[in-house]
């Protein structure tokens, strides 16, 4: 049986590349004059939420000592098991951390350590620029934690859920 071929004419506006090219150029031109939404990081930085939970910071007393009293609550509550604490005790029976380390690489930034700390010593911070060249560089010891200066996270307040 002979097979018939039916040739259909396509309208010129559907096959013209010129029309599509001009349309694309017009769209590009339109965006040239619109407000730019990209940020030229790291020269430019954007504001982060007061509730941002990032790099930890250990607050200190007026004498420069870490406020931590080595109670052991934060390593107990930490779901990522990334806080290492070795407690010590001075002659007056005051507890203090002999070793206090947080593995920032393992941390999931849940903020439980900040919430549970009775001394408001350890905080997650409003800071995210903590890249390193080595895995070991992400383990922050007490000296490094106390030397951080970035603002600390404002925890969620159930009485003010929208932070207003
Ligand atoms: S933010 Fe959460 S995961 Fe990170 S150290 Fe604190 S308790 Fe552990
Ligand atoms: S909860 Fe606070 S006081 Fe207790 S070990 Fe952790 S940082 Fe120190």
Structural features, described:
The protein is an alpha+beta fold and 164 residues long. The chain has a domain of 94 residues: Alpha-Beta Plaits (2-Layer Sandwich), CATH 3.30.70.3270. Strands 2-3-5 form a 3-stranded antiparallel beta sheet. The protein has a two-stranded antiparallel sheet with strand order 1-4. It has 5 helices and 5 strands, in the order H-H-E-H-E-E-H-E-E-H. The mean pLDDT is 92.
Describe what is shown at a glance.
By secondary structure, the chain is an alpha+beta fold. The chain has a domain at 54-147: Alpha-Beta Plaits.
For the report, how would you describe the main beta sheet?
Answer: 3 strands, antiparallel
CATH class of the domain at 54-147: Alpha Beta
- By DSSP, the count of extended strands is 5
Q: Which architecture of the domain at 54-147 would the CATH scheme give at its second level?
A: 2-Layer Sandwich
Distance between the termini: 79 Å
Supply Rg.
29 Å
> Which strand order do you get reading across the main beta sheet?
2-3-5
Give the % helix: 10-25%
Ranges where pLDDT stays below 50 over 5 or more residues in a row are: none
* Count of runs of 4 or more consecutive helical residues: 5
| Bound ions, cofactors and other small molecules, one mention each | iron/sulfur cluster
Order of helices and strands: HHEHEEHEEH
Give the CATH topology of the domain at 54-147.
Alpha-Beta Plaits
- Indicate the structural class: alpha+beta
Net shape: elongated
Kindly report the average pLDDT value. Answer: 92
Strand content: 15-25%
């Amino acid at each position: 049986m002979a097979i018939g071929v039916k040739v259909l004419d396509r309208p010129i506006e559907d096959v013209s590349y010129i029309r599509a090219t001009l349309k694309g150029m017009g769209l590009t031109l339109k965006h040239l004059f619109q407000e730019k939404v990209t940020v030229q990081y790291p020269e430019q930085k954007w504001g982060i939420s007061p509730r941002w939970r990032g790099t930890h910071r250990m607050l200190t007393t007026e004498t420069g000592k870490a406020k931590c009293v080595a109670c052991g609550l934060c390593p107990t509550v930490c779901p990522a098991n990334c806080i290492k604490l070795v407690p010590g005790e001075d002659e007056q029976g005051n507890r203090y951390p002999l070793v206090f380390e947080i593995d920032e690489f393992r941390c999931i930034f849940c903020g439980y350590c900040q919430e549970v700390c009775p001394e408001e010593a350890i905080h997650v911070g409003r800071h995210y620029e903590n890249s390193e060249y080595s895995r070991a560089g992400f383990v922050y010891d007490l000296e490094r934690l106390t030397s951080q200066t970035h603002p600390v996270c404002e925890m969620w307040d159930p009485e003010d859920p929208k932070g207003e």
